[in-house]
Amino acid sequence: MSTPPPHEPEAPRGLVGIGIGPFNLSLAALAHPLAELDAVFYDQHPAFHWHPGLLIEGTTLQVPFLADLVTLADPTSRWSFPNFLKSRDRLFPFYFAERFHIRRAEYDAYCRWVSENLPGLHFGHQVDAVRWNPERGLFEVDFTRLDGDGEAESQGRTYTRNVVLGIGTAPHVPEPLRPLVDAPGVPVIHAADYLDERDRLLAAGHVTVIGAGQSGAEIFLDLLRARPAGRERIHWLARTDAFAPMEYSKLGLEHFTPDYARYFHALTEPTRDRLVAAQWQLHRGIAAPTLAAIHEELYRRTLRGGWPDAVLTPGVLVRTAGRLSAGKVELHLEHLQQGTRSRLATDAVVLATGYRERPLDSLLAGLDPYLRRDSSERPRVDDRFRLVLDPSVTASGGHVYVQNAALHAHGVGTPDLGLAAWRSATILNAITGKEPYPLPDRTAFTTFGLGPRRPGVPPAQRDRTLTPLVDRR
Predict the structure, then answer these.
(1) Are 144 and 66 in contact (CB under 8 A)?
(2) Which of 100, 247, 332, 401 is most enclosed, with most CB atoms within 10 A?
């Protein structure tokens, strides 16, 4: 008979967080001063690192520094970005630098500072399963402790009333290109590994970048700057109709407010699905300063006459791809507007094809009988970021919350760092049944729908609303 895994501890936790990326790190930081909440967080990696392959020199966050882990919920928190600067004696340099958008490498350093000083974080712990124990009315969380080489060292189990999933996203490789990535020879890499492979890419005779989001633009610019004038030999291909700027107008940004998240969640499922597809430019376009820097670099290379050997072509679909005997990759292309097809031989490919939410099914296999799903078989998520579970679970006080895993339920703000603190505060308010973090009733000038802005807002503070028209035919 096998020995049961040790419990850690015998008393149930109030909260177990799975994954320690920026969103669960935000939750841990805001949970820290709540003495009544016993919270612990597990992550299989040995330490915190945020997109290390994309910390390209000079790249910045696309949100202001106020979108740190805590400030938009608790500006007085010891885990704020300004306090990080103070701890490093850098407040005055930052003040004089007048930077509203900080460098990515600095954000990574800030998050690592929090992760190294905040208690309750357990790196090198791989969570294997989450189950509901009806006899105890608690969730069981099984995990494996890993050694420095990532090998299993021992097993453990803990019990908890609440689970928060923050397992993040994974690099996405389109189906036609998947056979190329794992094959030896010509480098075909995802943008997530760019810095690790940068030297190989710079040594390649010809490089193709696929993808018209921010990462694709930054990688194209970095390669362009590093390659000799007149011998750039670089293609930039995109499926979108244009290398389009990200929507960054002031009212456009209000789609990343709690007001819009609440409005979006209340829409019907088909409407939400249509909106997610249509709103790509709100979060998948390219920052205007990056587009300007690319144009400036290309223009600079025309000053001595001639054009740079760089081809930028939007509206292109990569249909299939294969490796040539000469150590090259051949991409089979189709122009979506012209309806024409061609082939491109290249020495290296960078796939700036984005990320997708990691599937929850394997981790939550033990909860599958209790999960409620929508018509597309996705887990249903309520307005407080809880998975909708069978009443037999929730009646016992058990809840599973999700971070950055509900684009279909909460809209384009789901992966946005600017909503991290608000979502974490919403989760903690729900878990504690109190309001340790009072949240604003209104966060946008835009009224996204007809009718009262939000239940419970005093009449004097409500907008003048329109009476919905009713078709009585």
Answers:
(1) no
(2) 401
| Three-state SS at 129 | strand
The residues near 401 (Cβ < 8 Å, ≥ 6 apart) are 162, 163, 164, 165, 384, 385, 386, 387, 427, 430, 431
Overall size of the chain counted in residues: 473
CB atoms within 10 A of CB 393: 20
Among positive and negative, which fits the CA dihedral 28, 32, 35, 39?
Answer: positive
Q: In a 3-state reduction of DSSP, which class is residue 210?
A: strand
User: Judging by DSSP bridges, how do beta strands 310-313 and 234-237 pair with one another?
Assistant: parallel
Judge whether 37 and 162 are in contact, CB under 8 Å. no
User: Who contacts 18 (Cβ-Cβ below 8 Å, separation ≥6)?
Assistant: 24, 41, 42, 43, 127, 130, 141, 163, 164, 165, 166, 167, 363
Q: Which two tokens stand for residue 337?
A: 């507007």
Q: How far apart are CA 238 and CA 243, in angstroms?
A: 8
Looking only at Cα atoms, what is the longest distance across the chain?
80
Question: For 96-99, which contacts have Cβ atoms below 8 Å and span 24 or more sequence positions?
Answer: 99/65
Helices H, strands E: what count in the chain? 14, 18
Residue 28: partners with Cβ closer than 8 Å, 6 or more residues away: 17, 20, 39, 41, 118, 120, 121
3-state DSSP call for residue 165? Answer: strand
Q: Which helix (H) or strand (E) covers residue 400, if one does? A: strand 399-402
Amino acid at 45: H
Tokens (6 digits) for 161:
């009333």
Rg (Cα) of the chain, in Å, rounded?
24
Strand partners, 310: 234
Contact assessment for residue 429 and residue 83, using Cβ atoms and an 8 Å cutoff? no
Three-class secondary structure of residue 338 per DSSP: coil
Provide the whole-model pTM: 0.92
- The predicted-structure confidence for 294-346, as pLDDT tens digits, reads as follows 999 999 999 989 999 999 999 999 999 988 877 889 999 999 999 999 999 99
Q: 173-195: per-residue pLDDT in tens?
A: 988 888 888 766 788 999 999 99
- The HSE-up count of residue 36 (CA atoms within 13 Å, CB side) is 7
369-414 tens-digit pLDDT: 999 999 999 999 999 999 999 999 999 999 999 999 999 999 999 9
Packing angle of the helix pair 22-31, 104-117 (nearest 10 deg): 40
**Residues 177 and 169 sit within 8 Å (Cβ to Cβ):** no
DSSP run (H or E) holding 110: helix 104-117
Place of tokens 């709690």: 258
